[in-house]
Specification:
With 193 residues, the chain is α/β, with parallel strands linked by helices. Helix content is 37%, strand content 17%. It has helices spanning 14-21, 46-56, 58-71, 84-93, 137-145, 171-189; strands spanning 2-6, 29-33, 77-82, 101-107, 124-128, 150-154.
């Protein structure tokens, strides 16, 4: 199976490489898509990362990058995205041609709130933070839950809890949810009987 990871606005950091390496035992191929073409820009703050993300990429272009990566593979593929990357994954799996995609996992995908009229072509697990400053998480999760193939979850953690660069990083939650992601990826990409 192939896994495509779509990063947060921080881009392809050593943390992302380490996380991806945890999936080598279940994946034959791993692709990391990020807003900066694989360059770790070592941002000093989340504000710096967001400013660069909006200047260099933005949500539409990021979604297209993920879709382009997806359309390059013929192997059963699961997509995993975080924050802006989750929005990009959602956008890609709601496109007309999702190619070899079999499922997706999206973590604290704030941009998805602006794409709730989209419909995924494969099963998508949507994991939200308990609170978001720009929208009512419960309302968004409930609306998305009603979309066929979408499954919403709300965690008691804050946006960024899977990223050691975030002030909201939660190490115990990271380890729990990392295993959960692996389980979901295997479930989505398991051969159908």
């Amino acid at each position: 199976m192939h896994i495509i990871f779509a990063t947060e606005i921080w881009g392809k950091t050593p943390h992302v490489d380490l996380m991806a390496s945890k999936f080598e035992d279940i994946a034959s191929d791993i692709t990391i898509v990020d807003p900066y073409n694989g360059t770790d820009l070592a941002f000093g703050s989340e504000e710096d990362a967001y400013a660069r993300y909006t200047a260099d990429c933005g949500h539409s272009q990021y979604g297209q990058r993920v879709l382009d990566a997806l359309q390059l593979t013929t192997e059963p593929t699961c997509l995993v995205g975080f924050s802006a990357g989750a929005g990009a994954v959602w956008s890609a799996v709601c496109a007309e041609n999702v190619g070899a995609a079999k499922g997706a996992v999206c973590f604290y995908g704030s941009p998805i709130r602006n794409m709730m009229d989209y419909s995924p072509k494969v099963p998508v697990d949507l994991v939200f933070s308990e609170n978001e400053p720009l929208f009512d998480v419960e309302s968004v999760a409930r609306t998305l839950q009603d979309i066929p193939l979408a499954q919403s979850y709300i965690t008691p953690f804050e946006h960024g809890f899977m990223n050691p660069l975030s002030k909201n990083y939660h190490e115990e939650a990271y380890h729990f949810w990392l295993q959960w992601i692996k389980d979901q990826v295997v479930s989505h990409c398991a051969p159908q009987k």
